[in-house]
Amino acid sequence: MSSARESRYRVLLVDLDGTVVDYARTEAGALREVHHRFFRSGLRAFLHDFHAANEPLWAAYRERRIDLAELRLERWARLGAGPAVAAAFEEALGRNVALFPEANRALRRLSRHFRLALVTDGIAEVQRAKLRRTRIGRFFEHVVIAPEVGLRKPDGALLHHALSLLEAKSDESLMVGDSLAGDGGCAREAGVDFCWVDRARASRAAGAASGVPVRWTVPDLGAVRRSVTAPGPGAVRRSVAFSAPVIAALAASTAESAADAL
Question: Of 109-118, 180-189, 245-254, where does mean pLDDT reach its minimum?
Answer without folding.
Answer: 245-254
